[in-house]
Amino acid sequence: MSETTLYERLGGRDGIRAVVDDFYDRLVADERLGPFFEDADVERLRRTQTDFLCEAAGGPETYDAEPVREAHLHVPFEPADIERAVALLRESLDAFDVPEDDAEAVVEAVAAYEDELLDGPPE
Q1: pLDDT single digits (tens) 48-106
Q2: Does residue 71 contact residue 65 with C-beta atoms inside 8 Å?
């Protein structure tokens, strides 16, 4: 019997998209983080985040959007913003009953880009 991939355990693209949709609903509604999304194309962000997580989870999709650092240069994130976003991601994963080990793998895939998210524009 072959082991399933994280991608498969998360429900493939549809399952990952459902978590991403929930996550972005939480981000947009959040008092602290919502303002970052006021002028954003949230549907595009949902698609690219889905592709990113699908690829990170071992799926066939590829993340081919702008590199993370460049895509976020205009966003003045602080470490507390990243912590809040991770907390909301955990809430979304929990809402879909994603097992702890799998949820941790998803969080680690996102958290690996913290430095790029916090790296503001050149001065």
Answers
A1: 999 999 999 999 988 888 877 777 777 788 899 999 999 999 999 999 999 999 999 99
A2: yes
pTM (predicted TM-score): 0.89
pLDDT one-digit tens code per residue, 5-36: 999 999 999 999 999 999 999 999 999 999 99
Name, in order, each residue with C-beta under 8 angstroms of 3's C-beta and a sequence gap of 6 or more: none
- Cβ-based neighbour number of residue 27 at 10 Å: 22
DSSP string computed for 79-121: HHHHHHHHHHHHHHHHHTT--HHHHHHHHHHHHTTHHHHH---
Enumerate residues 6+ apart whose C-beta is below 8 A from 39.
none
Residue at token pair 């809040």: 84
